[in-house]
Amino acid sequence: MKRVAVVYGGWSSEREVSVSSGTQMLRAAKAAGYDAVGIDATRDLARQIAEAAPDVILNGLHGPWGEDGCVQGLFEILDIPYSHSGVTASAIAMDKRKSKAVYQQAGLDVAQDVAVTREEAARAHPLKPPYVIKPVNEGSSFGVVFVREQNNGPSQFVLSDDWKYGDNLMAEEYIPGRELTVAVLGDKPLAVTEITTLREFYDFDAKYAAGGSRHVVPAEVPEHITQKALEAALKAHQALGCRGVTRSDFRFDEDKDRLVILETNTQPGMTPTSLVPEQAAYTGMPFEDLVSWMIEDSSCRR
């Protein structure tokens, strides 16, 4: 029987989501017959893992340190097989501008963007409104700011005391339209989901609060867009060098028949409202089987 350490929690802005993901995966791993133990990650994670003595690490961390290559490097040093993507793929995918450069090389359509500091973003419009300000290395829509055409000037929120998402930002062309997402499992894209919400945009509460969003799977979009999204998600997964499970997010502008890839999440959520388990279930894979697949797919460089 494999001993599995489910690592979750940590100290990033996405701790709450990670605890929920980790709790769900730990329960499923035990139900699937694994000798599973949970680890709420601290900065003494190497000792925590050594004490747990696992054969495999199921990584349930989200956000900085957990999905940007940092903890993956620790797993590699410890020489313990772990789930999801490796060091390089994780680091590139977490950086929104670097990942977009990879997408462009792979022939995928991306939104125009420019790198800005907080001071630059607040001083003058870096792009013609409407546009979106995003931290380069955050997930779960933390720190996303919309700047509309009717705004009197650039956003001042980025300079406020409440801002805690770093100084490296990007201003990105706003793509109108519908929110689509595709999960990839190994070398297989699962389905296309459309996400709708009554909130201003698909923010943290829309993603994780009960009733915050509505998921339509399969998405009711033209067949050629379904196929294009499935192919683009797999192409992004492969171009970034990912393994295991990923989820790529898109905007579909119906007026221009344009499908734009926004980002690829190498540590997608596994909470009760998460999209990957939902797509897996749609294809006939229950959550317990999904978690088992991730455990058996785990690897590291030897």
UniProtKB/TrEMBL annotation:
Pathway: Cell wall biogenesis; peptidoglycan biosynthesis
One Pfam assignment: Dala_Dala_lig_N
Catalyses which reaction(s): 2 D-alanine + ATP = D-alanyl-D-alanine + ADP + phosphate + H(+)
Names of the cofactor(s): Mn(2+); Mg(2+)
InterPro entries referenced in this protein's UniProt entry, alphabetically: ATP-grasp, ATP_grasp_subdomain_1, D-Ala_lig_Van_CS, D_ala_D_ala, Dala_Dala_lig_C, Dala_Dala_lig_N, PreATP-grasp_dom_sf
Chain segments annotated as transmembrane: none
Cellular component per GO, a single term: cytoplasm
Keywords: ATP-binding, Cell shape, Cell wall biogenesis/degradation, Cytoplasm, Ligase, Magnesium, Manganese, Metal-binding, Nucleotide-binding, Peptidoglycan synthesis
Annotated localization: Cytoplasm
Binding site for Mg(2+) 2: E263, N265
PANTHER family to which the protein is assigned, alphabetical: D-ALANINE--D-ALANINE LIGASE, D-ALANINE--D-ALANINE LIGASE B
Protein name per UniProt: D-alanine--D-alanine ligase
Organism of origin: Henriciella mobilis
Taxonomy of the source species: Bacteria, Pseudomonadati, Pseudomonadota, Alphaproteobacteria, Hyphomonadales
